[in-house]
Amino acid sequence: MQQATHARLIVFGPLKVRQFLKMPPLVMSSRCHSVIPPPRDNDEKEMLDRMLRVDHAGEYGANRIYAGQMAILRRSQTGPLIQEMWNQEKKHLERFNEILAENRVRPTALLPLWNIAGFVLGASTALLGKEGAMACTVAVEESITEHYNSQIRTLMEKDPERYTEFLQVIKEFRDDEMEHHDTGLEHDAESIPGYWLLKTAIQLGCKVAISVSQRI
User: With 0-12 CB in 10 A as exposed, 13-18 as middle and 19+ as buried, what is 45?
Assistant: First the structure.
């Protein structure tokens, strides 16, 4: 046994040893578990899967909306503001990508549709000018905020201690969406003609998207 081990070390060679010693130490991920607790039964798993699926779809759609807005308003004075909000949405989507992977939850099968619909919505409202883009932001972010608040109430009623980490994520993202909503109002969203009609139409679409993304 010792001879075999010695033989392997010789084959490894002095050059390989030097190269190995120069390699940086392995860095283990600081996240040793998911923010989602292991489901106790099928009912809990289905509930959490639906929540994660629709949250991911919502953040994906929001990213596509901001992408559409930036395609039209990138060089305008509003461009940096939209980019700042988009950067936050990118972080949200990245986090939900991680959570879905950690928990082996499939995203909604409708992502290709939300890809196109989100971009078209963002670009078309941006063609109405800054006010149109901000009106879209207010409508969408208000819908997402209400959706997150509904999830928070559900988890708090069931077991707030069990879902502590998941609640922290949702609350953080909810607060970001509320900030985007307020930013839209501060930048003349309500001044566009037909604001309430536009807002109502967009929010109706958001409700439909939320409903179907949970199931499909």
Answer: middle
Amino acid in position 90: K
Sign of the torsion angle spanned by Cα atoms 53, 55, 57, 63: negative
Residues 6+ apart with CB under 8 A from 184: 134, 135, 137, 138, 141
Q: Which of 145, 207, 140, 135 is nearest to 172 (CA)?
A: 145
Query: How confident is residue 1, by pLDDT bands cut at 50, 70 and 90?
Result: very low
Mind spelling out the 3-state secondary structure of the chain? CHHHHHHHHHHHHHHHHHHHHHCCCCCCCCCCCCCCCCCCCHHHHHHHHHHHHHHHHHHHHHHHHHHHHHHHHCCCCCHHHHHHHHHHHHHHHHHHHHHHHHCCCCCCCCHHHHHHHHHHHHHHHHCCCHHHHHHHHHHHHHHHHHHHHHHHHHHHHHCCCCCHHHHHHHHHHHHHHHHHHHHHHHCCHHHCCCHHHHHHHHHHHHHHHHHHHHHC
Contact 83, 71 (CB under 8 A): no
What was the pLDDT predicted at 33? 58
10-31 confidence digits (pLDDT tens): 343 444 434 433 434 433 334 4
